[in-house]
Amino acid sequence: MARMNDQPERWTQATVHPDMWADPDDDPRDSDGAGPDGELATLLDFLKSYRLTLLMKCEGLDAEQLARRSVPPSTMSLLGLVRHLVEVERDWRNWLHEGDPEPKLYGPKDADFHGAVADRAVVDAAYADLEREQAATDAALAEHPDLGERLGKDKTSVRELMVHRIEEYARHCGHADLLRECVDGRVGQ
C-alpha cells in the first residue's frame, strides 16, 4: 500500500500531446467531423463523453487502487465516485415523478464512499450498478424528449436535469483526474 508521502511519477500514454490521457487516434471520446445536431443530441453527447471519461480514469487499476482514499479526512476514492454516481443516477429518476423516492442503494448519507472498499466483488458490483442505473435513468428520460417539459413535484425541466447530469459527471471527472494521479501518476484530460 502506498504511503501518503510516496509520490508516483507523472506519466501519460499520449505521445502526441503530453497533457492528454490518450492520443487522439486512440481516444474513444473523440470523433471526426461535426458534432451532433440539436440541443438534446448535444447534451447526450456531452453526457456520454463524461461517463466514458470517468470509466477511463478507473481502467487498469486493481481493487485496492480504486478504493484508495485521496487525503485524510476525505473519504473520496475512484470507487467511491463510481458508487456515488450510482446513487445520483437513481436520485435523478426521483426528480421525474411525484411519488415516493426510490431508496438509496448503498444506505444512508456517504455510505457510497464509506462502503468503497478494496474488494473485487464490491468493484464489480459498483460497475454493474452504474451500468444498470444509467440505463434506467436514460430510459426514463427518453420518454420525455421535450427539454422544456417540467416534471416531478418540483417541476424541474428536462433541460435542467440534463445539464445537471453533465455538471455532476464533469465535476467528478475533475476529482477523478486528481485521484488517478495520486494513485499511479497518470495524467491527462
Automatic annotation (TrEMBL):
<protein>
    <recommendedName>
        <fullName>Mini-circle protein</fullName>
    </recommendedName>
</protein>
<dbReference type="Pfam" id="PF04978">
    <property type="entry name" value="MST"/>
</dbReference>
<dbReference type="InterPro" id="IPR007061">
    <property type="entry name" value="MST-like"/>
</dbReference>
<feature type="region of interest" description="Disordered">
    <location>
        <begin position="1"/>
        <end position="37"/>
    </location>
</feature>
<dbReference type="InterPro" id="IPR034660">
    <property type="entry name" value="DinB/YfiT-like"/>
</dbReference>
